[in-house]
């Protein structure tokens, strides 16, 4: 079993839709939860960062963490064609400077105009 | 503010050869991590450098080695290349003291092994 499970998609939605992306994990030591966006043939870009459980909102993006269920989500409101990319969930444990970040496989999202 | 820069962007090698990839971290960052991303997969952690020492390593063989220089830049070396080493190699920089896993990535070096 992988430490981080993520549905690879692809996920295709019409412009303006609400998108829900999810990951599950098995390592209870994970404390930091991130979402990265990766455009084709580019490096990942940090979108959202959350510590422990709870919600965090940034513009059209909302990240949720449920540590009791080992489940994290990213919601994108009013999706735009420019949101078309691969979304990677990522997690790390609280171990001081030693930061091994574990990534999901990524969900490919396509927003249709 | 310069972000993370990597070179070369693309390269082609043959099996058995050796390759060196280079990375300059984001200005102000002191920690460099290297990741391997195969096609259709998420990035896999190779190792992390801080204060010119390898601090943590993922499940990669000794053919993968690295170095960090006093100016925080870093190199990734891969010896005896295999076909399976073909991938996008990503460099990520961060602040050691922050310790949160927030990584800033470069555009990557795409290695093709023939």
Which labels suit this protein?
heterodimer, A: 113 residues, mainly beta, six-stranded mixed β-sheet, 0% helix, globular, B: 114 residues, seven-stranded mixed β-sheet, 11 strands, 50% strand
Explain what you see.
- The complex is a heterodimer of chains A (113) and B (114).
- In chain A, a hairpin with an 8-residue loop joins strand 9 and strand 10.
- Chain A has strands at residues 4-6, 11-14, 19-25, 30-38, 45-51, 54-58, 61-66, 71-76, 85-93, 102-103, 107-112.
- Chain A contains no helices and 11 strands.
- The model of chain A has no long low-confidence stretch (mean pLDDT 93).
- Chain A is mainly beta.
- In chain A, the strands form 2 sheets. In chain A, strands 2, 4, 5, 9, 10 and 11 form a 6-stranded mixed sheet that branches.
- Chain B is mainly beta.
- Chain B has strands at residues 5-7, 10-13, 19-24, 31-37, 44-50, 53-57, 64-68, 74-78, 87-94, 104-105, 109-113.
- In chain B, the strands form 2 sheets. In chain B, strands 2, 4, 5, 6, 9, 10 and 11 form a 7-stranded mixed sheet that branches.
- In chain B, strand 7 (64-68) and strand 8 form a beta hairpin.
- The radius of gyration of chain B is 13 Å and the shape is globular.
- The relative contact order of chain B is 0.33.
- The chains are: A mainly beta (113), B mainly beta (114).
- Chains A and B meet through strand 4, strand 5, strand 9 and strand 10 of A and strand 4, strand 5, strand 9 and strand 10 of B.
List the topology elements.
The complex is a heterodimer of chains A (113) and B (114).
Chain A: E1 4-6, E2 11-14, E3 19-25, E4 30-38, E5 45-51, E6 54-58, E7 61-66, E8 71-76, E9 85-93, E10 102-103, E11 107-112
Chain B: E1 5-7, E2 10-13, E3 19-24, E4 31-37, E5 44-50, E6 53-57, E7 64-68, E8 74-78, E9 87-94, E10 104-105, E11 109-113
Parallel strand pairs in B: 2-11
Antiparallel strand pairs in B: 1-3, 3-8, 4-5, 4-9, 5-6, 7-8, 9-10, 9-11
């Amino acid at each position: 079993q992988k430490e981080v499970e993520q549905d690879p998609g692809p996920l295709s939605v019409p412009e303006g839709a609400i998108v829900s992306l999810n990951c599950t994990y098995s390592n209870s030591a994970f404390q930091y939860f991130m979402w990265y966006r990766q455009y084709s043939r580019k490096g990942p870009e940090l979108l959202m960062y959350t510590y422990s459980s709870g919600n965090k909102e940034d513009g059209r993006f909302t990240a949720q963490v449920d540590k009791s269920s080992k489940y994290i989500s990213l919601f994108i409101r009013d999706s735009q064609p420019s949101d078309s990319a691969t979304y990677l969930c990522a997690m790390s444990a609280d171990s001081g400077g030693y930061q091994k970040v574990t990534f999901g496989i990524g969900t490919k999202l396509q927003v249709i105009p | 503010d310069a972000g993370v820069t990597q070179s070369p962007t693309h390269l082609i090698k043959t099996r058995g050869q050796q390759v060196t990839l280079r990375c300059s971290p984001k200005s102000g960052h002191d920690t460099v991590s290297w990741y391997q991303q195969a096609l259709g997969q998420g990035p896999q952690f190779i190792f992390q450098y801080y204060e010119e020492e390898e601090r943590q390593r993922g499940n990669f063989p000794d053919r993968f080695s690295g170095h960090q220089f006093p100016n925080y830049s870093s190199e990734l070396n891969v010896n005896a290349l295999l076909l399976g080493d073909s991938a996008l190699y990503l460099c990520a920089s961060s602040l050691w003291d922050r310790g949160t896993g927030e990584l800033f990535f470069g555009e990557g070096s795409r290695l093709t092994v023939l």
